[in-house]
Batch of 2 targets.
Target 1
Amino acid sequence: ESSLPPHGGGHTRRGKTRIARALLGAALVASRVSAMVATRRACAAGVIAISPARTLALALHAGQEPATSRKPAKTVLTKGDGRLKPSKAKSTLSLPAPNPKNKPRSNGVKPVPLTLAPPSGWRAIWDLIVELRADRTAVVDRMGSEAISSSAPAQSRAYETLISLMLSSQTKDTVNLATMLKLREHGLTVDNILATPDEQLNELIHAVGFHNNKVRFIKQSTAILREQHGGRVPDTMEGLLALPGVGPKMAIIVLRVVYGKVVGISVDTHVHRISNQLGWTGPVATKLPEQTRGAIEAWMPSDIWADVNLVLVGLGQEIQTEKPKLLRKCLECSDPDAALALVARLGLDVPRERAKLAKGNAA
């Protein structure tokens, strides 16, 4: 006897529709699970690396409870078919535990080292930039942290260099120099800064960007210098990066300027932007300065690393605020056509600036 209700034609169509939807949903779920399994196998094999956020997403989609302390299951290579299969240990996904030293977290898979071939024609472009920057007349040459460091007393040079770099973030060089001169007049030593009330220190540096945060960072870092380093500025990347408010860009400059150690390329917004504009970061533009550093260090000869920051920062400043001077230098250099093409690529409106320069000369 039929189980369908009387006049069940409409019910039959609706039933078939529900069955079709259920089958489609099951197929989508199976496809998603298959993709997740393939991704996890590739991660276990070291072929790809996934972020902690993606690891969590995979665990949640798979219906697993993401572990916070358990280690990932080991994978073994089966004999014969060469496929990766989980070992007998229970398979779990783990999230990395918080690192108190603020080091990059790892999901257990080592990232593939970045390897890039030197961009075609990069040496000619670099030599031309060095020629355009030979006069050393940009703002950073006169008022940047390196210039401040060179004018500091020998006994406090390392500390003044560190403080000037901490103040320089999100701050114009002119403002940074003026603030450093006020601190020198106040007494820029480890003991004196620690003895200075936070309110007074904030008043001294109020002109720099994020001065409230910088008061806290300066006080915390200075306390670490006295308590853990005998008042000396660390001479290693690890020691410098352990200081609150100090990042790789600052640490690299401190090591080079104070201790003569060239350990990398300091990348700020100018270096980041120009490197991408010139195609020096590879086939895909980088989004973060540290990505840019990894890209250009992968192919750029280490014997010019020490010069890259100052040269490119100065060029970037001149493109933004000293266009007539830069244009004159292009017209007077060894290859004017190449220089004009270069600065045009970096965002300078050459026809407009040439017209303004010609008008000024005629006047």
Note: The longest helix spans residues 9-44.
Target 2
Amino acid sequence: MCSSGGSQPRSHPIERDLSLSFFPSFMKCPVYIIDAFTTRRFAGNQAAVCLSHKELNSEEEQTIAAEFNLSETAFPFPREDGTNFENGQSFSLRWFTPTTEVDLCGHATLATSHVLFNEVGNKNESLHFHTRSGILTVKKRGEEVEMNFPVYDITSAHLKHLHDPHQGLFPMFNAPSFLIDLIRCVIPESVAVRSVAYAAKAKKLIVEIDEETTKFELLALSPNFSEMLSIHEDGSHVRGFIVTLSPKRPLQQGFVDVGEIPFDYVCRYFAPWVGIREDPATGSAQCALAPFWSSIKKKKDLYAYQCYPNRGAQFRVRVLEGSEEGRVSIIGASMTIVRGEMVVKNDPTFYEPPPLNL
């Protein structure tokens, strides 16, 4: 727009501050991006957490998750009348990838807990999340959060020409023939496969590889995702593919933390069936790996590391006993990366663009 004489240029209406008073049918939702399962920024796994003051429907939540385009976006909401994010102890919690809702997500639960405890200032020592996987209880532990999650029953896959070194530890099942081809989409012939296990409830495949595999070699794995989806398109049997090992010589193989404390087991996690090629930190995978490695190593407390190029995440897990048998404790820290606000429409049409009188 041109100005004449000495007059000041008139601002275009679209350049004005579009406050919520300008669009009364809109509301602000606090949103956060959190790095979970890490004590340093730009590591661990990213999750978005959306604190909407009205309960959103599935379509709305899926639209927001697609917009963030992170592995998961979490949507907590207070369950009890008269409570809010600041004082509530009981919340519903849903998790969405960019393409679908998932039954369980550890890192997004950790991220949600971090937001409620540390960003919002919820003073409760514990919170209860009502989810598609039941009630998940989290407790504040200093700068960390302890999550109480279910463990998945493990079965061992019987595959032709594969001798299982853990025979007798887990029930055996005859694996479908396509699993061999699926495994070769991820594990090259140069890397030895020691055993294959399966967590049926979560549809997670566990592929244990050579215990002398180095961190460099584990990170060098380059799955053929298109071929994985071609072999097993619908994800009816496998929705998550875990590669794991218990390093024989952790220090020499590169599997120790900054204090040179060795990890009991390490892993990578691939899930193209739910729109996630690779996840940097997967709490739900520990619900399968914890009972798997606990049975093999004969110990309840485990220190784990999830490899991911240029990131990585650490987990302290404990397979619980007694009255809490069938549960696993997962402890981790988180870092806030982004604090912001999202503007959403406060009516059923949700994202219909508002008219601008230009």
Note: The radius of gyration is 23 Å.
